[in-house]
Write a structure and sequence with these properties.
alpha/beta; single chain; 12% strand
């Protein structure tokens, strides 16, 4: 388990401090080489790997077991951005529940057809379907390090995830929570445009499309979600907090929760990177 209290002695603290400082020095080259990635809770448009001086690190923790990590954060907190940047430096598979759902609907799998029927009827996709999709995805990458974005969203899903992982002796060993001021998230949301079929997200301020109003890959029109406005955002945020607060308490109790705070991804990313760098061989 990853606990904030795992560093207990001054000698070990000095060693970790040295590793964190080394990580941050290496990050300066990464920050200058990396392109800005879209800030969003949805999946960003695919980015080509950047050439940096940081070597690709193995996706295993210090005890030799694969990293099994969740990333939590409010809509627009930048979960997709952080996932994309981390994949440039660490050998981690990133799984987005939204991408998994869209792919299964497009491929017309059994679970995908059930999910499509729910969406078509205006209903939420049930926990049962989402759990089934994620279970299949994790089975396909057994033995690899992975980062899961967008799931679980409630305690029932968290308990189902724990059960499926513990059944194969591979429990979660990290949960990262991104804390970004609501005023910053609101600005991102109101300037966000989406390519609906792929989930690619653009922002007019820092990640605009090459051709205004058009997707960079397909050339198809982008859409501004009707609920990407201050009033709807407030309701979504309230719903998020009501569902996520119990999740944070749940993972805090198990000792695997780590939170990073900042107004931008450029401020949060060095914290996230240093944390992972300490735990990787």
């Amino acid at each position: 388990m990853l606990r904030s209290s795992w560093i207990r002695h001054s000698g070990l603290t000095s060693v970790v401090h040295g590793r964190v400082q080394a990580s941050l020095r290496r990050l300066s080259s990464l920050s200058s080489a990396s392109e800005t990635v879209a800030e969003s809770d949805m999946r960003e448009s695919p980015q080509q790997p950047q050439q940096t001086e940081i070597p690709m690190l193995r996706g295993v923790s210090h005890n030799g077991t694969p990293l099994r990590m969740l990333i939590l954060g409010a809509p627009g907190a930048g979960k997709g951005t952080q996932s994309a940047r981390i994949r440039q430096s660490f050998d981690i598979m990133a799984i987005s529940s939204g991408d998994v759902l869209r792919r299964n609907i497009a491929e017309q799998t059994m679970a995908g057809r059930r999910a499509q029927a729910a969406v078509a009827s205006g209903s939420l996709v049930s926990d049962e379907i989402i759990v089934e999709l994620i279970h299949g995805e994790l089975n396909n990458i057994a033995g690899r390090s992975w980062l899961l974005d967008g799931f679980p969203r409630n305690i029932a899903q968290a308990q189902a995830l724990d059960s499926m992982l513990e059944a194969v002796g591979q429990p979660l060993n990290a949960v990262v929570n991104l804390e970004v001021p609501e005023s910053v998230i609101l600005q991102r949301i109101v300037e966000r445009y989406v390519h609906v079929s792929s989930g690619r997200v653009y922002n007019l301020s820092y990640n605009p499309p090459k051709v205004p109003g058009m997707d960079d890959v397909t050339g198809e029109p982008l859409e501004h979600r009707p609920d990407d406005n201050p009033e709807s955002f407030k309701r979504r945020l309230e719903q998020y907090h009501s569902l996520t607060r119990p999740l944070l308490e749940y993972y805090h109790a198990t000792g695997v929760l780590k939170s990073f705070t900042g107004p931008t991804s450029d401020i949060i990313f060095p914290q996230f990177y240093a944390y992972l760098d300490q735990r990787f061989e």
